Amino acid sequence: MPLQRLRPVISRLREELRTPYPLATAKPYVDGRELVRELQDKHDLPDSMFMVIRSGQMLLLVEEADRYYKKVVFEPPDDGDAYRIYPAGRDNPVVVDPLVRFGRPHVDGVAVKRLWELRDAGESVEEIADSYDMQRDWVNAAIKFQEEQRRQRVAA
């Protein structure tokens, strides 16, 4: 989809929600669903770009938007900006936080890529976990996350 079709929607969301990055704030996911739905229709966005759909009398997030919303921590929760992202889900220790590791994925402050490199170099999960005083399942989660990222890059 050409970016110029999406720009007016983002511009209007900026104005109405009074924020420079409207999709990185909780507002369109919580309070601004009616506005998002109105803009989707007004600008004739294709269904694949929808964030909000109507189900009876309710406005619901589409599956992709809902999955994103559940991975992001907003501060404050109801209308704040994106503060932290759990790219593999909130039950996974891998975190993306712009204030830690320059926004690169990490586990407890240790770069996911570093943990993967150590394992790839032959260190055991136990050795890595002991080196960083980290839970073994956290190391395994980091390694799995990094491997998935690498697979996605190769497939693209």
Number of separate helices: 7
Sheet with the most strands, sense and barrel status:
2 strands, antiparallel
Q: Kindly, what is the distance between the CA atoms of the first and last residues, rounded to a whole number of angstroms?
A: 18 Å
Q: Could you state the order of secondary-structure elements as H and E?
A: HHHEEHEEEEHHH
> How is the largest sheet built, in terms of strand order?
1-2
Task: Sum this structure up briefly.
This protein is of the alpha+beta class and 156 residues long. 47% of the residues lie in helices and 13% in strands.
Question: Your description of this structure?
Answer:
The strands form 3 sheets. A two-stranded antiparallel sheet has the order 1-2. The chain has a two-stranded antiparallel ribbon with strand order 3-4. With 156 residues, the chain is of the alpha+beta class. 21% of the residues are buried. It has 7 helices and 6 strands, in the order H-H-H-E-E-H-E-E-E-E-H-H-H. The longest helix has 20 residues. The mean pLDDT is 93. Helix 1 packs antiparallel against helix 3. 47% of the residues lie in helices and 13% in strands.
Keywords:
156 residues, alpha+beta, two-stranded antiparallel sheet, two-stranded antiparallel ribbon, 7 helices, 13% strand
SSE blueprint and pairings:
Layout: H1 3-17, H2 27-30, H3 33-42, E1 52-55, E2 58-61, H4 63-71, E3 72-75, E4 81-85, E5 106-107, E6 110-111, H5 112-120, H6 125-131, H7 136-155
Antiparallel strand pairs: 1-2, 3-4, 5-6
Helix pairs in contact: 1-3, 5-7, 6-7
